[in-house]
Amino acid sequence: MIATVDESRLIAGLRDGDETVFAQLVDQHTPPMLRVARGYVPSHEIAEEVVQETWIALLKGIDNFEGRSSLRTWLFTVMINIAKARGVRERRDADVAIAAYTGGTVDPARFRTGEDPWPGHWREGQEPSPFPDTPEGSVLGDELIDVARRELGKLPERQRIVVTLRDMLGFDSSEVCELLDITVANQRVLLHRGRAAVRAVLEDYLEDRS
Amino acid sequence: MTGRDAMDCNELVELVTAYLDGSLDLDTMARFDAHLLECDGCEHYLQQFRQTVRTVGKIRDDELDPAFRSRLLDAFKDFR
């Protein structure tokens, strides 16, 4: 999560050509921008070009930047537009495809079936157990972050982008819908499936470890 | 869990993100909460989901490639 800071000082710095301010913003925002851009374009090199173009667009526009959105939201909005224009991946009625999928996010074998008096409830021995609390910097905590990072990288593109923006970068739901031009319902579906996939690998990892 | 309004576990697990976002309608939220009161498995599932979100929130981006960083800073100098 990135704390909201008073950005007027930073914007004034950019207008004055203060390189330290620029470097600070670059360090803060470039890695997540690259991560998200990579979802739209076929190579890391093109993602870098997209991000570079975005920074140049900011510098060109900084005198007119009104601060109606946060700098970060502005950067991601512009970056995604540039990335889309450069992207070779097609959208092909993505919203329809999201809505059409109806499968569950938890292995159906874990639930009781129609013959059971409690159909749809956890089977005995299949009930989830709580994940352990892991203190900051603990070995297990670091392992779990690593497992989550790997799974995030394997998610289908749109799930990965939504989970990254929401849970890793802390954008809220309405910002993500606007950035990606998707409905609230579809954003939620993508987020839920992505989170559920990460949850499942964390659960497997913890079971194997114990 | 009885009555026609009862929520099943396999229904609940698909609503967790909507629940955490506070976007369930009030009836569904009431069924969700009622189910949680009686079902340890689902309470644990919700806990796992929260922990998952928290864990993803701790993933840090890779360090910025120094060569790319200098390219951006050069672009800034050129621009000025």
Write the layout of secondary structure elements.
The complex is a heterodimer of chains A (210) and B (80).
Chain A: H1 8-15, H2 19-37, H3 44-61, H4 71-86, H5 94-100, H6 139-154, H7 157-168, H8 173-180, H9 184-209
Chain B: H1 9-12, H2 16-20, H3 26-38, H4 40-57, H5 66-79
List keywords for this structure.
heterodimer; A: 210 residues; mainly alpha; Rna Polymerase Sigma Factor, Chain: A; Arc Repressor Mutant, subunit A; 2 domains; 0% strand; B: mainly alpha; elongated
Structural write-up:
The complex is a heterodimer of chains A (210) and B (80). Chain A contains 9 helices and no strands. Chain A has 2 domains: 79 residues, Rna Polymerase Sigma Factor, Chain: A (Orthogonal Bundle); 116 residues, Arc Repressor Mutant, subunit A. The longest helix of chain A has 26 residues. The mean pLDDT of chain A is 89. Chain B is elongated, with a radius of gyration of 22 Å. Chain B has 5 helices and no strands. The chains are: A mainly alpha (210), B mainly alpha (80).
